[in-house]
Amino acid sequence: MNQDRFKNFPDTAKLFLPGGSLPVVGSTFKNPDLARTYEELGRKGTGAVYAGDLGREIVDTVDKPPVDPASGYNARPGKLSLKDLAAYEAKRQAPTRTSYRGLNVYSIAPSSSGGTTVGEALNILEKTDLSKASEAQYLHHYIEASRIAFADRGRWVGDPAFEDVPTKGLLSQKYADGRACLIKDDAVLTSPLAPGDPSGPAACTTAGTAAPTTYEGENTTHLTVADKWGNVVAYTLTIEQTGGSGITVPGRGFLLNNELTDFSLAPANPAVHDPNLPGPGKRPRSSISPTIVLDRYGKPVVALGSPGGASIITTVLQTLTEFVDRGLPLVDAIATPRASQRNAAQTELEPGLYDSPLRAQLEAIGHSFKVNPEIGAATGVQRLANGKWLAAAETVRRGGGSAMVVRPAP
Questions:
Q1: Of residues 37, 128, 167, 220, which has the active-site annotation?
Q2: Is 221 among the residues known to form the active site?
Q3: Residues 6 or more apart from 136 whose CB is under 8 A from it?
């Protein structure tokens, strides 16, 4: 997919297209430049990125992309300065928290929309007994809860340093109950659905003008890790699309991202305030949803996450409800065919659902579908009753995931 793009940048082509060709399956990939970069970071720490030679090389690469002159490719220069880089720091912030079926669900707060959107959808589903619902009824309620939560996400979630993001209101059970009553057992809501107003919730109403969900890249990585002491990490990382910007920092062995595409580069609807428009110093809204679930005693139950752009949210939501409500083993909750509704006219279905009798049952009450060959790629860990851990990942999607126990040698 990246072959033609990578050819435009000599350092990228040298690394990823050995001898000018695609790597042969089964060959060994070596990246000594990255090894040297890691070694330098090990000696100097992260200061090397923000104030050292490595930082200067990153800035030079952004502002003067090292394109092959013979390619004719227009690699537009960026606008990054050493001052910008030195001023950046990762935020330490409290997670979102939602109570669901007596469990405490923790996730990431804005500017990611994952924690608020998954949390709102769970709150919407809280008073529906999904364990006793038929498969069609379960999917119907899950799809509609996703639709409503995405309508609110599009209106309210952005970078809280620049936007008034009503995180507490979006995660209020009272607000969710007022949105949940929009869902009918025998009818389907129309998308794009208008948002509600968390500051003054009124039951079964919407406020303002609807806006569709904007585009978001789907290529990300998620790791879920637990250790024998019970520490748990859910970690989602991305350079946006596979291959990022396509630009390798010369001599450093890594690609630069194109994460600015997570901004709404134009309002989804000019009549609606879009909290995710770009601006100086502003962080784009993401959909990453690294999630850790604890029991009422504060002990881990399950942790999970996924790549997939905006479908990360629906992947985590569906996996959680399949595991918690439907009682599926974690690996089966991850493997089950997925549906993804993101306040769009049609709900995306993987072939396992699109080609099943369930599609006709859902269409009979008004759902409209289109096929998506693959939605998300989750990993998770579950703490078992005996104190041991179970690791689970995809069985088929993206070639199958990785789930294992690592036992370091003494």
A1: 220
A2: no
A3: 358, 361, 362
